[in-house]
Amino acid sequence: MADTGAGDEQLKVTVEFGGGLDMFVKKERLQMVDGAKKAIVRMARQTGGKGTTIRRLIEHIGEDYLKASTDLFCTGSTLRPGILVIINDADWEITDDGMDKYDYKLQDEDEIVFVSTLHGG
Amino acid sequence: MPRQCDICQGARAIIRRPKTGQRVCKECFFRAFETEVHNTIVDNALFRRGDRIGIGASGGKDSTVLAYVMKTLNERYDYGLELFLLSIDEGISGYRDDSLETVKRNRDQYGLPLKIVSYEQLYGWSMDRIVEAVGRKNNCTFCGVFRRQALDRGALMLDLDHIVTGHNADDVAETILMNILRGDIPRLGRCTEITTAGDGYIGRSKPLKYAYEKEIVMYAYLKRLDYFSTECTYSPNAYRGYARQFIKDLEAVRPSAIIDIIHSGEAMKVASGVAMPVATTCGRCGYISSNAICKACALLDGLERGIPKLGVSRSSRDADGAPARAGGAGAAVEPVHFERLRERALALRRQRLGGAEPEPCDAAGAACRCAGTECQ
Amino acid sequence: MCDAPAMPAAAPARTRRTLVPNKCVKCKSAQPRVAVRQIRYCKACFVQASVTKFRTAQSKVHRPVGTKTMVAFSGGAASSAMLRLVVDFQNAWRKGTDAEPPYAGLVIGHVDESALFPDVPEDAIRAEAAKTGLVCEIATLEDAFALDTPVLATVARGSDTGSVYAQLVGPADGMSRKARLAALFAGLGSITDKEDMLEIIKTALIADMARRSGCGAVLMGDSATRVAVRAMALTSRGRGFSLPLDVGAEAQWFGRMVVQRPMREFLAKEIAFFNRWTGQQDATVPGFATGLPKSVSIGRLAEAFIVELDRDFASTVSTVCRTLQKLEPREEARTARPCTLC
Known about the structure:
The complex is a heterotrimer. By secondary structure, chain B is an alpha/beta fold. Chain B has helices at 26-43, 61-76, 96-110, 119-123, 127-134, 139-157, 169-182, 185-190, 213-222, 238-253, 257-267, 295-304, 338-352, and strands at residues 15-16, 23-24, 52-56, 82-89, 114-118, 162-164, 195-196, 203-205, 269-270, 280-281, 288-289.
């Protein structure tokens, strides 16, 4: 799908890759926003099921944003252990009771940060 | 051109030994493997001449190789040991019943006497029934605790001097990591010992402690040993699975890692001043325990009262006050007291030394005179 | 799993917290922003709790009286957080009070790894150190060839990298130190050996800088997560005998130098949030295994193993750290690192 304007069918979020994760992201996907390398991600809004979840975002990044086929960011929609996720300046592990953190429903203009705490980069 | 054996330089090499990197022929591999086990036995003075040794036999690759090698070495080096196969029947249909058939064939193939003791007979509960009562989540706890005691009970029934088990280098390495990960300091100290005091009863040792699992599998395969290779049908311990995989990955990166972990474990020293549990005996069955009631009795109690979670968690606080479900699930078999088992073992020993035969037993229950060794 | 009461928790007197649903555990009013070991904090309370935890831990340990403390600083997340916490602690002390300041003197010790890793943002790291206004000792990796031989000999002994000592003190054959360093690492076959060698050299350089600048204590920035990973890697490399020295909260190097690891109180996750919310800059310091699959080295495997376990069994890292605290070095480990100061 082409990245032309975020219409109603498209959802727009900003994604930052920290702790060295930017190394795995295609250069052309990154731009400087407020002094940090970020990617503006536009995704098709999913109306059915659980909506456009962060699980879908991780999958999408894995398919379209990474340099080579690598499992250093995710395997399918499962994030590599040791990578933190911060959604709008809050830990993604803070969820409503019983909710799977992967089921977080993305909102327009969400700021998502992935930070690696791993030495292996 | 096929490569020659690094040892004999004659025959064609067919295996690369993971432990040493040597490429060796079949005969040299057998010899090297057996000699290493022999050296482990001699260096650690595991046995004395005339000892009655029970080989913990599950029918799996490790214990089958252990039984075969023990018999071979006993003859080759004239250890003068009396060997027995000792099997535990946990009562897991589709798994243990089949593997016990393998052990029975091993009995005939190696000409070793076999004793089978079952959970059903010892505790009144088979694993199948335990799983029915507790579900699949914690059943490994029951099985492990019961097995530990069951081996001691079986050994006393046979009046053994020592038990050998098939734990290999991979198992020992895995256990070291598990104990670090779980913070089990007392076990971390003990798990690397080749011989443990056997919880105060019968000494136990692991002659295959330095043998790689890979080599054991190769040995069993090349010797065409008859073993059973199905995994337990109940869910394996997930946590242990991680450690297992880690060790396999390490071995691929550096084959010596398994032995290195064992050396690491052997060299770890528990700081003085760390409180260790004090051993006492179980008030109910006489087994060694760090509590007034041993773990097996606590678990049985929970099963009988229909609150199987009892005894699974670490604290026994919730034991009192927890309401017993009316009727419970039990068909109680009070485990035979260890004092009686020991008396019986002594009687058997006197008989072997020329004394009178112990009184035959014909009545189970309170009138039993054999400590459950015959009448059940 | 491991709620055995025998272990002292980070806070000395643990009082039962009253939980207000969906509020910070401390102030009970703000929206929680981070969950650490299932406990939820708001931003301000999290930062405050981290500072308190660090100071409490640092107040309990003993440093040789009157000697300076070296803060080992790589520029990475954990040592950046440590440097900030140390400096804040020192600055919070008010002159004129009766108590001694927390540190008799502070020196930063930094090892410049750019000879092996040209991508290290060395300028930014040095600028970050300079911001503190403290004296910053800097050694480059190639300085290892100029070290006093006893330091090397003692640090390298008992390692599985073979003739480290011989290689570092052998004849130069007219090569520059940088070329010798490159040759040394090129000669090591596996990434595991390279990681091991790098660790040995960095340790020796830090110890040497501390000694030369008159420091009696060294603060190393290993986080709890890092300690657990290193413990697994060291165990797998047959170095279980020296775990208390290599990852212990407090150990003696060379007889007299005290080595402390105050960041052991923090998970890597806590450090990441702390830096983010205090605006603390940190750098990504690459290693030999960066960007490679996990099967390239024992260190990488150990890291993958621990973080995966910790994801699925939340208390893994903490439990490993507690286990390590109950071990003490064997005689071999002590004699492998005899005192080179006296």
